[in-house]
Amino acid sequence: MINVATALKFYRVMAYIVGVMLLALCGAMVAKYGFDSPTAVVVVGQAHGFLYMVYLVAAFNLGLKARWGIGYLILVLFSGTIPFLSFVMERNATDRVRKQLAVAAV
Q1: pLDDT beneath 70, residues of the chain
Q2: pTM for the whole structure
Q3: According to the model, what pLDDT value does residue 106 have?
Q4: Does residue 81 contact residue 21 with C-beta atoms inside 8 Å?
Q5: Residue among 2, 24, 36 at smallest CA distance from 84
Q6: Dist. CA 47–CA 1, nearest whole Å
């Protein structure tokens, strides 16, 4: 179960990073379309895109180790594309995995 705990830590870090970057991207889009300043979208967009790929690997890794169903795994994978959803799903996935680890420890 140590592998699941390690995968959970990596997933949690990436979920928060991707969530913050997505919010920054939303702010950059407001700057682009509201104030005609496209520079931030290019920089933040590329950073978010790269970090989202790392998030996908982290979530998929955790999903395989925690033996999630395909529906839940897809929901977790897509949660990095909707503002604030990565924070909600991180909490949900963390609770789910911690309960699973507690049952396995007994």
Answers
A1: 1-2
A2: 0.89
A3: 73
A4: no
A5: 24
A6: 32
